[in-house]
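User: I'm writing a short methods note and want a consistent example. For Putative transcriptional regulator, I'll paste the sequence; you return only the structure tokens, no commentary, since I'll be parsing the reply automatically.
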Amino acid sequence: MNTKQRQRQVKPAEVRLDELVTAAQALFLDKGVDATTVGDIVERAGVAKGTFYHYFNAKTDLLPALRERFTHRFLERVSAAVEACGVDDWPGRLTAWFTSSLHAYQVDFQLHDLVYAGHHHDRDNPDLDAVVGQVEAILRDGGDAGAWPVSDWQRLATMAYWSMHGLADAAIARGGVDSDELGAFLSRRFLAMLRGVEN
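Assistant:
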């Protein structure tokens, strides 16, 4: 019986790792990184300290894992919304990108602020590149399909991203984001610009 109980407690490494990251996320958001100890994290995750040190050298090593989690979930949510649109509905796909990006950002903005503090001005930020690349692909594919004139997709994608991010921050500061309304606003303005763009 005891052997079976011990066997049931053995979990795959990726599950243990996810439990540690989830525990750290909750504690960092609740108490702050400085006030959270490794002991707090392992207690919440239900693992031994040795398990923690198998994956991490210090609690701050969890921050890159949390950044990866935020970016992965953001991209996944936005991709699902975009792919729910018709394959040739380029205005719809762009609107879905704005709306779902705003929603994903609002849902996790506290985690975003925790893990990206000081990272927005990094000249080499692969997470930012991945998100900008997502909207860049929509813009390029729409241009290739003739939905709008061909232009400098990378610059326009950067404009789209920072427009979304800045307006989301402003709306959150005022108490919340109406993702549908703000996404539609951004999409209308951006589509008008795209259709009148000159190289």
